[in-house]
Amino acid sequence: MRLSWQRQQIRPRHRFATSGWGVDEKETIVIKLEHDGLTGLGEAVPSTLYGQTLESAEAALEVIQGKLGDDPFAVEPIVRRLLDEHDDQRATIDGIDAALRDWCGKRLGVPVWKLLGLARPQKQTTFTIGVADPELTRVKVDEALAAGFDALKVKVGTETDEDTLSYIRERFGGPLFLDANQAWSPGEAAGQIQRLARYKPTIIEQPLRPEDWQHMAALRELGVAPIFADESCERPADVIRLHNHVDGINIKFTKCGGIGEALRMIYLGRALGMGVMLGCFVCSSLAIAPALTIASLVDYADLDGHLLLAEDPFEGIERDGGVISLGDLPGLGISACAPR
Fold it and tell me: Which of 117, 121, 133, 208 is the most exposed place for a label (fewest CB within 10 A)?
């Protein structure tokens, strides 16, 4: 198998920000796996939240290339070995996992979701309203509602939270997910959550820093909304650790390392009676497709990374209002857009 990669630059339609950081443009890495005349594609979306950078991803790829063997169908043993050897570079492993599965589906002429024995991917996604000044926030909300999105996710943890949520609730009565991105300390989180209770959130995500995860159990007892862990939950072992401390988990492929690890987290969460959500970073459709492939197994999906872009370099994911879906194309069902 021959592995190659290149950076791609993507730009959100509007600046995308949380309580702690913001992005006007970013780069991800498109991974190509070539074998026997076919090419499988994947996308690595490194995040400094987890000690990953473009440079560390490329360094890992340099080490990995030439060591994948000659059987692309051996996805599980290949990915397991990569996880053992490059545990801190799971975004890179995710891209390779996706490329392997894309190749397998193309070789067999079937979608990856069929190879996994799953239902056709068709899932409501939230649309995320990032932190912005009041004028831009209103523009984002108006655009999302005009486009037919019927579930919104709002980044909170700033002094403008109530202005933003009041504006939304004046116009929108549907599911509202609040994501604090670690904005609060254990001492202030309960008060902040109670203050936002009147906006009737569907869930509240990652109110505390990862190291404060044990304090999230008390926030569940407030009864305002289910508490979901994101930055506190990176891989399967974290699901077990968080049991009885949170109501649910947000699984992101950048954190866990691809479809196989995500499935393990889903099954663990289900066995422990926890809610399960799939999330993403700002990225192209190529990175969203693997998560959407298994989205029929989860309660909630926040898979709008490609929908936030001014221009998506890949195509293949269909959208009808707030519902995104994949069709019957082989592999991940994603291809590069034709040059304009």
Answer: 117
CATH architecture of 119-336: Alpha-Beta Barrel (3.20)
3-state SS assignment for residue 335? strand
Residue 276, SS3? strand
Distance, in Å, from the CA atom of 227 to the CA atom of 246, rounded to the nearest integer, reads 5
Measure the CA–CA gap between 247 and 280, rounded to whole angstroms: 19
Tokens of 28: 């991800």
pLDDT surpassing 80 at residue 267: yes
Angle between helix 259-271 and helix 285-293 axes, rounded to 10 deg: 40
2-114 against 119-336: fold identical: no
Contact (Cβ atoms closer than 8 angstroms) between residue 249 and residue 275: yes
pLDDT the model gives residue 340: 62
Check whether 339 has a pLDDT greater than 80: no
The mean per-residue pLDDT over the stretch 263-284 comes to 98
Residue 297, Cα to own-chain centre: how many angstroms?
A: 15
**pTM for the whole thing?**
0.96
Nearest to 20 by CA among 183, 213, 160, 228: 183
The span from the CA of 120 to the CA of 303, in Å, is 16
HSE at residue 14, side-chain half, CA atoms within 13 A, is 17
Helices (H), 216-284: 216-220, 236-242, 253-256, 259-271
Q: Decide the pairing of beta strands 176-179 and 152-155.
A: parallel
Confidence of residue 211 (pLDDT cuts 50, 70, 90): very high
In 3-state terms, the chain is what percent helix, strand and coil (to 5)?
40, 25, 40
Q: Where are the domains of the chain?
A: 2-114, 119-336
Mean residue pLDDT across the chain: 95
Architecture of domain 2-114: 2-Layer Sandwich (3.30)
14-36 pLDDT, tens digit per residue, is 877 675 667 788 999 999 999 99
Measured CA to CA, the distance from residue 289 to residue 97 in angstroms comes to 12
Copy the structure tokens of residue 61.
């790829």
Average pLDDT over residues 128-150: 91
